[in-house]
Amino acid sequence: MILSFMFDIDGFDDKNLHFSWNAINKPVIYINDGDVLNINIPDSSTNQIRYDSRDMKIDNSRVDAAVGPVYINGSEPGDAIEVEIYDIKTGGWGWSAIINNFGLLKNKYNERLFIWDIENGYARGVNFLKGIKIPLNPFIGIIGTAPALGKYEMIPPQHFGGNMDNRLIRSGSKVLLPVNVNGGLISFSDPHASQGDGEVCGTAIETSAVLKIKIRLIKNRNLKTPIIYSNENYSGNVIATTGINNDIYKAAVEATSEMINYLSRELNITEEESYILCSVAGNLRISEIVDEPNFVVSMVMPENVISK
Questions:
Q1: N or C: lower Cβ tally within 10 Å for the chain?
Q2: Which top-level group of life is the source organism from (predicted)?
Q3: 87, 212 in Cβ contact below 8 A?
Q4: Which residues of the chain have a pLDDT value below 50?
């Protein structure tokens, strides 16, 4: 029988944060196989953006601070760490942003910050997207173990996980991560209240969260990259725009741009609002990749999101 214990980690205390992936990061806690963690995680700005903020004037060196690392006793290279997500409780508000030189349509629109109220299972824009509510689907954008060698920034994702921004990493899911160093050194960051596949503008509905998880150690699993066990939420009727190009990235730009045009016209909202809506609720999908030389990418928007 495995005895398990519950521990709390406060990510609002700087001593429990780090700002890069590195095997020399000092563990904030040592736990055993089967232990449960309650982790208080700040938003991706690391508390720099407030509810009354009106711009993106922040210290970028403090973005996406990770809570951890957590040392799992007995874990060694070649093993895997299983993270079972019991619950994710978001904060009462969140934010999204168009950021200079970032996102799928980088520099097409001016930088702008958007604030959301989060209540009763939905996010609603404060002074934007009037009449539209986004169903919550909380998940953890950053989860990863330490690399065997070197130092990596929090962005982009790496073979050990990191900034995957995968909306399947939500309550009820399990994530398997490779162990590259003794202890695994697993960390968590970047909670999202909702996001579409692709996170096309560069942000989701960024928020703080309390994450409850159970850690299991799997010996000799020899993973190369993370594996996620989850369930799909199907949204019913959808509207999809398409991008067709011999460059799959350009096809993604085309599909997103066409959805922005559609939403702006049909909902009588600005292109910037439409871009944010694509990022937090639209799903960018590869629809066809075999009929060379052209590829098809779709931007898929649930009708229940945009039905006022």
A1: N
A2: Archaea
A3: yes
A4: none
The yes/no answer on whether domain 238-306 falls in CATH 3.10.28.20 is yes
Burial of 67 (0-12, 13-18, 19+ CB in 10 A): buried
Q: Which two tokens stand for residue 77?
A: 């290279």
Write down how long the chain is: 308
221 three-state secondary structure: coil
Residue with tokens 């939905």: 122
Q: Given CA atoms 21, 26, 28, 34 in this order, what sign does their dihedral have?
A: positive
Q: Where in the chain is the domain with CATH 2.60.120.580?
A: 6-229
Residue ranges of the chain assigned to CATH 3.10.28.20: 238-306
Cβ(179)–Cβ(73) below 8 Å:
no
Instruction: Classify domain 6-229 at the CATH class level.
Output: mainly beta
- Whole-model pTM: value is 0.95
Half-sphere exposure at residue 1, Cβ-oriented, CA atoms within 13 angstroms: 2
- Pairing mode of beta strands 36-41, 6-10: parallel
Q: State the Cα–Cα distance between residues 187 and 295, nearest whole angstrom.
A: 36
Q: How far, in whole angstroms, is CA 43 from its chain's centroid? A: 11
List Cβ neighbours of 1 (8 Å cut-off, separation of 6 or more).
Answer: none
Beta bridge pairs of residue 10? 40
